[in-house]
Amino acid sequence: MTLGAMAIMMGGHVRVGFEDNTYYSKGVPAENNAQLVARMVRLANEFGRPVAEPAEARQILKLK
Q1: Continuous H helices in the chain
Q2: For residues 14 and 50, is the Cβ–Cβ distance under 8 A?
Q3: Rg for the chain (alpha carbons), in Å?
Q4: How many domains would you assign to the chain?
Q5: Three-state SS for 25?
Q6: Calpha distance 48→56 (Å, rounded)
Q7: What is the DSSP letter of 35?
Q8: Per-residue pLDDT tens listing for the chain (64 residues)
Q9: How far apart are CA 1 and CA 7, in angstroms?
């Protein structure tokens, strides 16, 4: 959470999901990936950072 918020504030990209963290907060398991993604999207919006749509993310990462 903290590193994700810092990355957003510094203009970087954020990766979230069960592969990285299974907790929503200290001692509270995340229900699913969508819950983790929704939190980062909310933070990005609060910091005025646009969130890439899937096609934009693929282009940024140079994926097919």
Answers
A1: 2-9, 33-46, 54-60
A2: no
A3: 12
A4: 1
A5: strand
A6: 18
A7: H
A8: 889 999 999 999 898 888 888 999 999 999 999 999 999 999 999 999 999 998 998 998 899 8
A9: 10
What range defines the domain where residue 42 resides? Answer: 2-60
Q: Helix or strand or coil: residue 22?
A: coil
Q: For residue 24, what is the enclosing H or E element?
A: strand 23-25
User: Both tokens of residue 20?
Assistant: 């990285």
Residue 32 in tokens? 């699913």
**Residue of 15, 18, 17 whose CA lies nearest to 52:** 15
**What tokens appear for 58 in the block?**
């693929």
Alpha carbon distances (Å) from 28 to 23, 43, 45 = 6, 19, 24
